[in-house]
Amino acid sequence: MKIKMSNVAQRSVGIVGFGAFGKLIAQNLYGHFDLKAYDPRSDQRDVAAELGVTFTSLQAVARCDVIVIAAPVSSFEDVLTSIATVCHPGTLVIDVGSVKVHPSDLMEKYLPDYVDIVATHPLFGPQSACDGIEGLKIAVCPIRGLQHWPLAAFFRKHLGLQVIMTTPHDHDREAATVQGLTHLIAKVLHRMGPMPSRMTTRSFDLLVEAVSMVQNDAPEVFDAIENANPYSAGIRRKFFDLAHELGVELENNA
Amino acid sequence: MKIKMSNVAQRSVGIVGFGAFGKLIAQNLYGHFDLKAYDPRSDQRDVAAELGVTFTSLQAVARCDVIVIAAPVSSFEDVLTSIATVCHPGTLVIDVGSVKVHPSDLMEKYLPDYVDIVATHPLFGPQSACDGIEGLKIAVCPIRGLQHWPLAAFFRKHLGLQVIMTTPHDHDREAATVQGLTHLIAKVLHRMGPMPSRMTTRSFDLLVEAVSMVQNDAPEVFDAIENANPYSAGIRRKFFDLAHELGVELENNA
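ok -> structure tokens follow
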């Protein structure tokens, strides 16, 4: 089963979920594939047209050569059961969520054996990708079939991404620190109220920039990172315990 | 009492404490003033000579037109009592520490009435100033006399600094968040152990960069920021309480 991802003019890519991330995918795949998209919110039709994407039914999207699931976590299982009965043999199904263990299990469970699966996590969002995605990172977990090879080559050659080949468990273990801590600190700082902007140091400016990049993420993203990643609770407890310990130390020294 | 800081060729500046920050001051004032420095560690004599600074006694430094105290917090009172008996009328004494309320009180208490006092906080350190200090920020608190005017003009015109005129209390209130939080988060992350460097997001990279800028600061700096700033304990408690609250919320949702 050799799929030439570089010879893709005729290949169709169907995007399920046309939110901020679905649009980002469309912008970056435009010109490489025949693009279709489905979203339950029909008001996305005009935006899709502007981006050169055919807005259509979930059934039509599920018959594409490649299906990219960019739907909210809450609808993930419904999307899988819907496309499972429609997609044809050799189809490549890709997800793009922030956690990988649980969605990979679901894709293996619901999608028929004749469908190839690659779990991915683009380590960027609409905000960090505002100047383009070249040089940014994407984690790629091969789940079923061999299409991860041409897919990774496409990401490197045509999109200029840094590809990190990994497994769902290795991914989630590392992401629990990388994303778990960033979102946790961002949430706490957000609750502290407006941050000073006048008498700031370079390191504080960087800290504020870091957290502001994730503070506008959808609540589902925070929820997925903190609750759907099996390693997050451990990292979180460690952070809170060490913070508490430091607090006690400082009170005793005061 | 008009002091022309721009006409400074003959003016002498004495630096008390020739650690990393004392050296940074010397590098940036070189060519503007006749520079002298004192440090109890006599092995700093050669480094001083290389930077065009006369390494001398505390008494000689205390007879300069401007005295900059860049000594560790622990020796601050000793330095003040030593220079108080030597410095001549019209001398300008400046400190450069990370907190301002307590040191300002001490300077007012120990230094004779005929000495002018300006409390400053350069909002940068040797690491953030490695590419030069132009454009960086300095907080300036007038404490006694009028020499803060020519001093601020010198900072702006000759060093290219952004001058923030403030009071010790306003400074410490804002710094408790700016520096208190940065150092607190840096300390907790440091205790968590080595951070991932492979599968990182842009926001996590910024977070790591932010904390790494302060993780090499001297322990006295952390101590001053967390314990000598009267507003730090409140900010810290707020941070720890909100972190704990979020932790409980996430446990309940899990």
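Chain B has ten helices and eight strands.
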